[in-house]
Design goal:
Helix content: 55-70%
Number of domains: 2
Structural class: mainly alpha
CATH class of the largest domain: Mainly Alpha
Strand order of the largest sheet: 1-2
CATH architecture of the largest domain: Orthogonal Bundle
Radius of gyration: 19 Å
Shape: elongated
Number of strands: 2
Distance between the termini: 12 Å
CATH topology of the largest domain: Tetracycline Repressor, domain 2
CATH superfamily of the largest domain: Tetracycline Repressor, domain 2
Length: 202
């Protein structure tokens, strides 16, 4: 059930982490204060206490910085809720995921991710959208691994990604009507019908 998508995306350390944290905070503060239209790299640099060249060297275009900020905001803070069953865990996760991706904030973050001109923000890192897919897959994998350890029948990670998570994102980005909670749960119910018993990972 492990896929190429659910490899962990490491956070930077040391001075690099401090610079990233300062620039990200400055970006979020200015977005909240003045809005996206007024945002510029020199303004962010001044707010963060770094030079504009530092930002250009690390992130390149403003769009790539905004994508990096969005990726960090999309990174899960912890494991998904444990309700005691794989069906309950996935229902709770899907409800939260649909709410987040269908919100104005979630849509804005997805658009920032897709607007990244360079794709990958550092050599050796996967493309920005793939990092977001990895976060989603890793949450699903945690839920499915729990279910497998309990001896439950579980769906494949890719099945949940392809038949539940992907339609939620597609509807949020391209439809005038975001997916309803009922539609999301119907997709999950269909996905759960593909569940089967598997040997838990060691």
């Amino acid at each position: 059930m492990t896929t190429a998508l659910n490899r962990a995306i490491p956070r930077p350390g040391g001075r690099s982490a401090r610079v990233q944290a300062a620039v990200h905070k400055a970006t979020l503060d200015l977005l909240a204060q003045d809005g996206r239209a007024a945002l510029t790299v020199p303004l962010i640099a001044a707010r963060a206490g770094v030079t504009p060249s530092t930002i250009y060297r690390r992130w390149g275009e403003l769009a790539d910085l905004l994508a990096d900020v969005a990726v960090e905001r999309l990174r899960p803070d912890g494991d998904p809720a444990d309700t005691g069953s794989v069906a309950g865990d996935l229902q709770a996760w899907v409800e939260q995921y649909r709410d987040e991706m269908s919100s104005d904030v979630g849509l804005g973050m997805m658009l920032d991710v897709l607007s990244a001109r360079n794709g990958a923000l550092a050599e050796g890192k996967p493309p920005v959208p793939s990092q977001c897919a990895a976060f989603t897959a890793s949450q699903i994998e945690i839920i499915i691994a729990r279910g497998a350890r309990r001896g439950e029948a579980v769906p494949e990670v890719d099945a949940v990604m392809d038949t539940v998570a992907s339609p939620i994102v597609y509807r949020a980005l391209f439809s005038t009507a975001p997916m309803t909670p009922e539609h999301a749960q119907a997709l999950l119910s269909a996905c759960l019908k593909t569940a089967r018993k598997v040997k838990p990972a060691a």
